C-alpha cells in the first residue's frame, strides 16, 4: 500500500506539472525552475542605506540586494505565497550575498576577526507561517551567517531564531506607515539572550518603514548591522 501511495503521489505531481507548467517565479520564463538571470540577483552588488533605530544615534547600516520591485519583488512574493515552489535554496544564496557584503564592512583581509561570535537574528515569522513551515527569513539568515564565518568576519556565526511575535500580532501587509509602526511597537519578545560581546546582525526579507526591524533591534538591545533582500534608501 505504501508503494502504491508513492506511485499515486508521483503521478499526481506529474499531472500537476502538465496542468501547471514550470516557469521562473521572477520573470515567468517557461520550463525552468528559475532562470539564470533571476538567480544571479542573489549575487548582485549590494546597496547600502541607514536604518534609524532605537539606541543608535547614527542609525544602523542596512545592506540590501535592491528595491522592492521587478523580479526581486516577484521572487519574494513567490517565496512567501507559492505552495508549489521551494525557494529556500535561493533565499540562502541571497543571504550569502548579503553576508559577503557585510563581511567586507566588518573585516579586512589579514586582520583578526571583528568578533569571536556573531548572532544573525531573523525577523520573526507570523505564527501562521510557522505552522505552515514556510519560513522566508530563516534561510536568509542562515546564508548570512555562513558567509560571515567563511569570510573571516568572526570565528563563528550562527543563525539564531530567538525573537517571537506575540500571539495576536497581525501581518503588516497593506498597512500605512503609521499603522505599521503602531502594529509592531511592543509586539515581540526574545526567547534567548545574546551572549556578552557577540556581534548582532538582524535580517528581514523586505524593509519598508523599518517598523519590524526596529522592534527586533529594541528587544535584542541593539545590533551592529542589518540586512534585507529589499529595502529603500534611508529608512525614516
UniProtKB/TrEMBL annotation:
GO terms for molecular function: transferase activity. Keywords: Transferase. It comes from the Bacteria. It holds the Pfam family Pribosyltran. The keyword Signal does not apply. Residues 174-228 form the Phosphoribosyltransferase domain. InterPro entries: ComF/GntX_DNA_util-trans (IPR051910), PRTase-like (IPR029057), PRTase_dom (IPR000836). Belongs to the ComF/GntX family. This is Phosphoribosyl transferase domain protein. It comes from Schaalia georgiae F0490. The lineage of its organism: Bacteria, Bacillati, Actinomycetota, Actinomycetes, Actinomycetales.
